[in-house]
C-alpha cells in the first residue's frame, strides 16, 4: 500500500465538482480528508491522505492535475518562531483547525502542532512572519 498526504488547491470553477469522489470511484484510491475549506478568493483547498497502489496513485494525481487542481506534497511542517511572535492573534482568525488559539486569561497565542494540518494559511497572515514552513519526511510512509 502506498500512501501520501497531499495539499490540493481547486480553482474557483472546479470547487463544486466531485473531483475527489472520482479518485475513489475511477482510480481505486482510498482517501481521508484531513482538512478542507474555501480560501478568501473562493478557491477550495484540501489536505488529503491518499492510499492505493503506486500505479493508481500516479494516475489519480494526473487526473487531478488535468482538472486544473494544484497538487503539492505535504512533506512539510509548520513551526512557530517564538522569538518573532508578538502574540497579536492574527493567525488565530485564519487557522481552521484551532491549532493556533488564544490562551486566556493570559491572552497569549498558543500553537498546538498536533492539531496543525499544514494548510499554511497562517504563514501569510502573520505580520512578522513568525509561522514558518519547514521540510519534514515524517508525513511519508510506504
Ligand atoms: S498551517 Fe497554520 S493555519 Fe493551517 S492548521 Fe497549521 S497552524 Fe493552523
Ligand atoms: S500572527 Fe504571527 S505574531 Fe501574531 S500571534 Fe500569530 S504567530 Fe504570533
Q: What would you say this structure looks like, in words?
A:
- This protein is an alpha+beta fold.
- The protein folds into two domains: 2-73, Alpha-Beta Plaits (2-Layer Sandwich), CATH 3.30.70; 76-135, Alpha-Beta Plaits, CATH 3.30.70.20.
- 18% of the residues lie in helices and 35% in strands.
- It has three helices and eight strands, in the order βαββαββββαβ.
- The protein has helices at residues 19-27, 54-66, 122-125; strands spanning 2-10, 30-38, 44-52, 70-73, 76-80, 100-103, 108-111, 131-135.
- The strands form three sheets. A four-stranded antiparallel beta sheet has the order 2-3-1-4. Strands 5-8 form a two-stranded antiparallel ribbon. The chain has a two-stranded antiparallel ribbon with strand order 6-7.
- β6 (100-103) and β7 form a beta hairpin.
- α1 (19-27) packs antiparallel against α2.
- It is elongated, with a radius of gyration of 17 Å.
- It starts with a strand and ends in a 7-residue tail after the last strand.
- The model is unreliable at 137-142 (pLDDT under 50).
- The structure holds iron/sulfur cluster (2 copies).
- One iron/sulfur cluster binds next to loops.
- One iron/sulfur cluster binds at residues 80, 85-91, 109, 125-126, 128, 130-131.
Amino acid at each position: 500500500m502506498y500512501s501520501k498526504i497531499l495539499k490540493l488547491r481547486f480553482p474557483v470553477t472546479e470547487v463544486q465538482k466531485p473531483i475527489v469522489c472520482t479518485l475513489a470511484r475511477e482510480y481505486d484510491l482510498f482517501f481521508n480528508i484531513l482538512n478542507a475549506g474555501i480560501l478568501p478568493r473562493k478557491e477550495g483547498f484540501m489536505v488529503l491522505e491518499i492510499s492505493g497502489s503506486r500505479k493508481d496513485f500516479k494516475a489519480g494525481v494526473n487526473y487531478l492535475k488535468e482538472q486544473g487542481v494544484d497538487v503539492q506534497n505535504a512533506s512539510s511542517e509548520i513551526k512557530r518562531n517564538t522569538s518573532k511572535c508578538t502574540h497579536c492573534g492574527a493567525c488565530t482568525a485564519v487557522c481552521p483547525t484551532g491549532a493556533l488559539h488564544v490562551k486566556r486569561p493570559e491572552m497569549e497565542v498558543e500553537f498546538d502542532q498536533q492539531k496543525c494540518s499544514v494548510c499554511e494559511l497562517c504563514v501569510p497572515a502573520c505580520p512578522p512572519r513568525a509561522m514558518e514552513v519547514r521540510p519534514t519526511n515524517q508525513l511519508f510512509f510506504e
